[in-house]
Amino acid sequence: MATVKHPNGKILTLVAQRRTTPLPADAPKPIYIEREFIEVLVFDSMPNPSSIMGHAAIEVRGITYNRQADGYRRQAPTAYIYRETAQRDIIGLRLWVTPMEADALQADLESRVNAGKKYDLLRNSCSTNTAQALENIGILAHDPRNIQTPVTPAELLSVVSKSNRVVERRLYPKGWKHGASTNW
Known about the structure:
Elements: E1 3-5, E2 11-13, E3 36-43, E4 55-60, E5 63-68, E6 71-75, H1 77-84, E7 90-97, H2 99-115, H3 126-136, H4 153-160, E8 166-172
Helix pairs in contact: 2-3
């Protein structure tokens, strides 16, 4: 067996020698991270005064959270999108998050639902709530050159679509039927 003398005087014996990686030392190594997906939904405007700027919602783990003038709503995403596309177009941005971020996001949204705060266009609107919830898990959702609030649905779409976490941009055109979308 081969032996080596350590600088402190100890004799070291080579017991085994094995290669721990099949790639060369300078080759990039894949990193596997458990991922979940959320979807940020941005809705077209409508002639209704409460929807003049559009609307925003967020889907986490099969529940769509959306702030409306009369309170927060939790709904199944397919039924919600199907109902809304009867009146307007929707753009969905699917983003990857870690399970820990998904937990934090869902807890934040549930706390907003349970808080029952009054609707405020500047501080407690659909898009401002969505932006704040995303930013609480580290995803930029407003233009930092502007003031923090209000965040419009157009600004939310513009900023989030530039995120490196976006894996898919889905279009739900007016009259969309579940499963009949041309872009999946």
